[in-house]
Each structure stands twice: as C-alpha cells, then as structure tokens.
Amino acid sequence: MNKIIFLCLSVMVLFFIAGCRKQISVIPERPPQTEIAPKKVNPFENVDTSGNAVFTDASLSDDLSRQAAEALKTIYFDYNSFQLNTDAADRLQIIAAFLKSNQGLRILVIGHCDERGASEYNIGLGEKRARAAKEYLINIGIEQIRLETTSYGKEQPAQGNCIDEICHSKNRRDEFRVLAK
Amino acid sequence: MLKKVFISAVITGFFVFCHAEKFDLEVYASRFDSIPVGVIDFVSANGVTINENNPGSIIASDLDFCGKFHVIAKQVFDSAAFTNENIGIYIDGDYALENNSVIINCNLRDVATRDLIIGKKYKGDIRVARSMIHKYCNEIVEMLFGDQGIFESRFIYVSANGNTKNISVMDFDGFNQRTVINNKVINLFPAFTNRNGFLWTSYIKGRPNLYMGSVLDGTTKPFMASRGIETSPDVSPIDGTVAYASSKSGNLDIYTCNPDASDVKQLTVTYGVDTAPSWSPNGYQIAFTSDRSGNPQIYIMDADGANQRRITFESKYTDSPAWSPKGDKIAFMAMNEHGRFDIWTIAADGTGAVKVTDMQGSAENPTWSPDGSLIAFTNSSGGRNDLYVVKADGTRLRQVTKSGDIKMPDWSGY
After folding, report:
1. Domain total for chain B?
2. Which residues of A fall within a CB distance of 8 Å from B327?
C-alpha cells in the first residue's frame, strides 16, 4: 500500500517538475543585463548648461539690421520634402553674399513644417530642411562654424488652422536669424 | 467566453460566501460583454449634502469609463429596472460631511436580496474625496476581475498656450488639470519615468533637448543635449532605460541610455528620419517611426537595434507608435484619404491591422491605459485639440476634456 502511495507521489512530483520545465521553456529569457556602472556622467559636457539660451539674436546696427532683413528671406519647400527648389537656391545665394560681406556674423537656420503631419516626424523633417540650407551654404563657401540649425517641426506655423494648400505652403519653410557671437 | 467563465468564477466565490445564488446565472444571461452593475446616488448621513460630485455619480462615471461594466445609474434603488437590465449587483452608500473632512461608506450589494457583499469605509479631507472614490473603484475592479483598476492613473500632456506650449497633468478622467512646466518656450513629448517623474523635450535653450522633471514640485534638470535635436523619450518599464531620438550624428536616429543618461547607444543608422521610439512591455523590443522607405512608417527592432523591420503598409504616412502594456498590439496614427489621421492597432508581427477610430477631426498620438484595455488620443478639429478615450476594439468612444488645448498625452502606470 505504502509503495503504491509512494509511486503515485513520485509520478505526481515528476509531472510537476515536467510541468514547471515546460512553463520555463516558453518564457523567453531576458538577455543578461550589463551592470550599470555608477559612473558620474555629464551629458552636457560640451554644452552650456546655464539658463542662457544657446541662440541669442545679435543686436545689429540699424543699417546692418536693414541689410539682414533684405537678405535673410524665408525659403519654402514642397509637401513632405526637404529638396531646395530654384527659388530657394536663389535666395540662399543672396544669403551667402550677405554672409561673405559681413564676415563676423553667424546665422541660425530654423526648419518648419506645415500642420498636416505628425509632430514627431515633423521635428525630423524640419531639421532636414534646415540642414539642406546649411549644406548648400557650406557648398558655396560659407564656413560651417557660422551656421547653426534647429527645427520647430509643425509647432510654430506662420499661419495657423490652414485648410488649403496656399496656406499650408507658407508654413513649409526655413527662417534665418542673425546670432550673437 | 473564457473571460465570462473567469468572471463568473470570481464572482461565484463571492456569492457562495454571501449566499447570493442567483448572481452567477444573471451574469451568464447578460447580453453585455461587460458586467452589468447598478449604482445609486449616495445619501447624506447627517443632512449636509454634496451638491456636485455625488460619490454615486463618480463611481458610475469611473466604472463606465473603464469599459469593464455596463452601468445603470439610478437616484434610488429600483428593483424592476435592475432586474430588467439583468443587473445582479449594485452599489449604494452614504457620506457624512463634517468641517473639512468626509466619511464615505460604499456598499456592493446583491440586487435580489439587497444583502451586503462587501462594504468599505473611507475617511479623509474633502479635497481628496474623488481620490477616495477612485480607490474604491480600483478595489471593485480588482475584486471582480482580478486586475488592477486604472482610476488612480493620470495623463501628462502638452497644453498649448499661444506661442508657447506648457506641460500639464490631469487625472485619468480629465479632472484636476494642473500646469507643471510653464517656462515661456515650446515644450513637447512628455513621458512618465515613474508616477511623479517625467522626461520631455524643451526649447529652453533654443534647441530641442531632453529635460527631466517632477510633477510633485515642478523641479527640472537637463537630461540630454547635443548640437542637434533630442526628442520623443520613452522609458522601458523593465529597467528604466530611456529610448529617444537624437540628430547628433546628422539626422534623427534612435538612441538608448541609462536612467542617469550614461551609456548612450545608437540603435539606428539611416539617412532618413528615425523617431518616436516606444518600448515593448517586456523591454525586448522597440517600435519606432522611420521614413527610410520614402514615407514615415512604423518599424520594430530588438532593444539592441538588431532585426529592424517594417510592420505598417496600410497608409502612406504613419507615426506615433505606442506598444500596449499587454504586449499584444501596437497603436499608431495613420493618415487617411482626407489628409487627417485615424488611430489603428496592429500586432507586433505586422498582422491584424485594424482601424480603431473614424472621426471628423484628426486623431493623433495614441497612448494606452495601464491595463492595456483603452487607448487615449487627441482629436484635432477646428483648431481645438481634446483628449478622447476608446476601447481597443473601437467601442465606447468618449470625449474626456473640453478645454481644447491638449496634445501629446502620455498615460501613466497604475
């Protein structure tokens, strides 16, 4: 009798172990975690972490301010594109001429998108628009160090609540600002 | 069916204990895929009445919100109405207001016998009365379903304010809206790191970089910055590893780093835009948006960047993936033929794509409830952006806010 009970118990234990094994095998093992070293890091190592903005507008003389307003005209893009069209290229030539005759100046290129896309993607697209202008200016002889870029995606439209293409087209743009040294 | 059996089994445990034998049959006979429950207005125990936010109406609203109940709210007990609706259980109670404190008695009862199944008593400051009721609703859900309730969860979101955009928080039901970041610049993509901490993208210094903040005291500190852009943070629910998009190598790619911003790893290296990472709940994988095929589409990859593959083919423009806490689905926004967005869900293997919303406005930035049963999103229409919630199967759509200034919501954990 005791043997039978012992046998039954053994079989049950075996089943239990088998069951456990099966369960474990279907749970994918998490890749081993590398221990997080408690090292001190400063992600802002090369960045000014004071409250001051990185991009401060230059204070220009009246005359230079007029010239800048004349030269740094907004350029526009096609829908979902960061290709520079001929109008944009013509305007970038004027911007380059302005920068060449005002060697001390740095500019910020700000990429924007229309309101139709997704916020996440448009931040990236706006940056591509800003970088397209920056690369064009570098290719025609402007020093890289004088050019900064950023993107506002679709967060600062020139015209809000657009319902037609004419309105949307005014938001797909690069704007330019003269930065303090 | 399995769910019904499970629910019945759970409830059976109660009715055996409480001698409410008819209850199990009534749940089976129900025509609803959710538990029918009656809620009647709470009465004042000492004559001092609450004019707004009667505990009964908050309970009815909570239980209806979560989609697990079919709620019939009545001012007084109505046996005929409850029986006609196949309702086996109901909630009643009373409250006593005294100076600035309140005592609330909540009772779950059997409709047939009116016997008490379980009673709970809460006492506290009148200002936290809603929280007490939410806590009770969490207990009801846990008791009947064995799941945690979502009634103490909350949203962090972008609240538009003219040319600046602030970061605000509110309860899951749109109450207690409170601005935590108001720094006169544009702030985007807030994401909870835990119940009180969050990461977000701010133009504090002119560039969009990542910052870390606390909803408790509004304190902030820089988290990650480069000469490019840092955006769209998402925190692994397993170990707090932060996934984000950065353009420090030229254009937006996906990176990960430790919760202290150390050990930065670049996961994607493409000429296109890679952004909007969303962790799978087990921390093995990341969904993200990429335009490497020409238009933005949803991709997934392993947490180390391996096995990158596209999973959406339904629309020419998809973005904002959000991996369900259950792990089974990824919600995303997809552009329709009118140039507006709908919310869709898809399995992680790219099968079973389903359109969840079909609204007049543009439905954007989905985020899951902590139990994975609901999807919240913003609907943009006529210049107004409000938060909506829908069950993952597309039913029970409801508007949560009416302030018109809500964008990029992130739903907290429990």
Report:
1. 2
2. none
B158/B246 same-domain check: yes
Which pTM was predicted?
Answer: 0.85
Question: Closest Cα to residue B289, out of B280, B278, B279, B299?
Answer: B299
| Residue B24's CATH number | 3.40.50.10070
d(C-alpha B105, C-alpha B110), whole Å: 16
B186-200 pLDDT, tens digit per residue, is 999 999 999 999 999
Q: Which residue of chain A comes nearest to B273, CA vs CA?
A: A124
Same domain (yes/no): B164, B304: yes
SS3 state of residue B386 = strand
Q: Strands across the sheet with B230-235, in order?
A: B230-235, B242-246, B253-257, B265-266
- Tell if the CB–CB gap between A124 and B261 is shorter than 8 Å: no
Distance from CA of B146 to the nearest CA of A (A): 22
The position carrying tokens 């809460």 is B122
pLDDT the model gives residue A4: 57
First and final CA of chain A: distance in angstroms? 96
Residues B40, B173 share a domain: no
Q: Which domain holds residue B48?
A: 2-145
DSSP B250-279: SS-EEEEE-TTS-S-EE----SS-EEEEEE
**Which comes out higher in pLDDT, residue B174 or B29?**
B174
CA distance B275 to chain A (A): 7
Q: Find the residue in A nearest to B254 (Cα).
A: A124
Closest partner residue to B231 (CB to CB) among A31, A116, A123 is: A123
B291 min Cα distance to partner chain A (Å): 9
Residue range B72-85, pLDDT digits in tens: 999 999 999 999 88
pLDDT, average across residues B322-346: 96
Distance (Å, whole) CA B2 – CA A167: 54
> Are B120 and B127 spatial neighbours (Cβ–Cβ below 8 Å)?
no
Residue B326: band (very low, low, confident or very high) from pLDDT cuts 50, 70, 90: very high
Say what the pLDDT of residue A25 is.
33
* DSSP letters spanning B189-215: EEEESSSSEEEEEE-TTSS-EEEEEET
Minimal-distance CA residue of chain B relative to A43: B224
Q: Does A32 touch chain B (CB under 8 A)?
A: no
Q: Which of residues 53-82 of A touch B (CB under 8 A)?
A: 53-56, 80
Q: Do A52 and B252 touch (CB under 8 A)?
A: no
Residue A77 scores a pLDDT above 50: yes
Q: How many CB pairs under 8 A join A and B?
A: 128
Task: Name the minimum distance, in Å, from the CA of A112 to any CA of chain B.
Answer: 13
Based on the domain organization, do B303 and B192 belong to the same domain? Answer: yes
User: Of B127, B145, B163, which marks where a domain is finished?
Assistant: B145
Domain boundary among B113, B145, B177: B145
CATH placement of domain A62-179 = 3.30.1330.60
Candidates B394, B374, B365, B361; CA nearest to B325 is: B374
